Structure formats: structure tokens, C-alpha cells
Amino acid sequence: MGKVKIILTVVVVVFVVALIVFNASNPAKPDALAWNSSMTKGDPETGKHFVMYTDVFCPYCDKFSNSLHANAEEFMENYIDNGKVYYEVRVTDINFLSGHSVNSEVGGESAYCAAKQDKFWGYYKALLDKLYEDWHSNGIGVSKDAEKIPKLDNDYFYEIGEEAELDGEVFKACIENHEALDELNTATSKTQKIIPGGIPYFVFGNYKASGFDGNWDTDNDWKQARLMLDAGL
Fold first, then answer.
1. Average pLDDT of the residues in 29-58
2. pLDDT tens string 185-221
3. Secondary structure of the chain as H, E, C letters
4. Contacts of 36 (CB under 8 A, 6+ apart)
5. Residue 209: which of 197, 192, 223 has the closest Cα?
6. How far is the C-alpha of 140 from the C-alpha of 216, rounded, in Å?
7. What is the rounded CA–CA span in Å between residue 17 and residue 89?
8. 202-221 burial, b if ≥16 CB within 10 A, otherwise e?
């Protein structure tokens, strides 16, 4: 019996080692990890998978994204078009669940509805630009202690969708019928199990960080964002 136990132990150890070697030699490709391919930029075959967990009504998240939008040419040239980075935004409504924003649920749904038309990036930029123009630039909704953005009706998002050249009727139906709510809820639930604290939460290669201390100066914020991106490379 003793010899049998030894043989079985050796077999198990060999199997485990073989499995580790196989996984190391055949890592999961980044595209297999993307939650929504329409919310990604870059080549999943060559780029290192960089992820931001966000909520469109999270001001700290918006500062980071605004800096990328304002410096889109440099971001694309130095990180995306050269195949270095496969960038993904994972939208949640964590701020709705935590009571920080009454708009995060519909805002998150609207983002996924835009993604259904493969126009997430144009809509995302238009939405953040509008939030900055109407609220953030006036000190509203800029932090957890600031005056909150009031409840917005659906027309607010429909107008942004029109600016982003979405199919208006399809977009409106998607929001009104909550066609993207399950995807939003799934993303939120998965995110809550992954991140140790609040949002934004970044996983850039081996670099992980929570929060973003920008100051709405897109040049200054871009410097900080670039340091984070480079740290992941």
C-alpha cells in the first residue's frame, strides 16, 4: 500500500506540474477576457490587456478618461496603434448601488446600449463631455462631498446619443426596455468581487491602482495617466 500511495503521489505531482507548464505556455488571450469587445481598443493578439473598472458618474473615473480623450492622438499612437496595449473599459453602476449617484444605473445602461450599436467610444466621449460642461465644470458631482448631480431624465441621454450619431429609435428602445440592464448588473456584480475598494480601479499589466487624483486639467491629468500606463508596460 505504501508503494501505491507513493506512485499515486508522484502521478498527481507530475500532473500538476504539467498543468502549470501548459498554462504558462498557453496563457488566456486578452480577447477571451474582454467583457464587451465594443468597449475595447487595440489588438488583443499583441497588446497587453489594460482594464479600467468604472462608472460613468464616477468623477475620478471621468477625469482619467477625459485626459485620454483630450490626448487621443498621443494615446492611440504610443499605446494602441503600435500594438502595445489592448485597452478595455468595464462599465458598472457601483455608484448607484452605493447611493453616490441616482444616475449611474441609466448612465450605465446607456453605455451598453451604445455598445450594442458598436458606437460606445463616440458615445462615451460625448457623455463625459456633456457631464463636464453641465456639471463638473461648475463644481457639481466632482467628489463624494460635492453637490450631487440631480436626477436626469432619459431625454438627457437620448440627446447625447443623437450627438454620437446613434440610431435614436433603437437607442431609446434599448434604454426604455432595459435591454442592457442584465449586462450592466453582471458587470457590476463581477467587479464587486474583483476590486478591493472603490472605483476607478485599474489593472494595467502587473500594475494595479485604485482612484485617480486628477484635477480636471487634461494636460496635467494626462501626465499622471501616462505614468500609470507606462507602469503597466
1. 88
2. 999 999 999 998 889 999 998 899 999 988 999 999 9
3. CHHHHHHHHHHHHHHHHHHHHHHHHCCCCHHHHCCCHHHEECCCCCCEEEEEEECCCCHHHHHHHHHHHHCHHHHHHHHHCCCCEEEEEEECCHHHHCCCCCCHHHHHHHHHHHHHCCCHHHHHHHHHHHHHHHCHHHCCCCCCCCCCCCCCCHHHHHHHHHHCCCCHHHHHHHHHCCCCHHHHHHHHHHHHHHCCCCCCEEEECCEEEECCCCCCCHHHHHHHHHHHHHHHC
4. 90, 112, 115, 120, 183, 187
5. 197
6. 13
7. 35
8. bbbeeeeeeebebeeebeeb
List the Cα angle 97/103/104 in 5-degree steps: 50
Strand pairing class (40-41; 48-54): unpaired
pTM: 0.85
| Count of CA atoms in the C-beta half-sphere (13 A) of 131 | 30
Cell of 107: 448612465
Average pLDDT of the chain to the nearest whole number: 88
Identify which of 79, 88, 84, 89 has the alpha carbon closest to the alpha carbon of residue 47: 84
Backbone φ and ψ for 230, nearest 5 degrees, come out as -65, -35
To which residue does cell 482619467 refer?
A: 64
Residue listed under C-alpha cell 488583443: 44
Question: Which stretch of 16-30, 62-76, 152-166 has the lowest confidence by average pLDDT?
Answer: 16-30
Question: Tell me: the pLDDT tens digits for 144-201?
Answer: 899 999 999 999 999 999 999 999 999 999 999 999 999 999 999 999 999 988 899 9
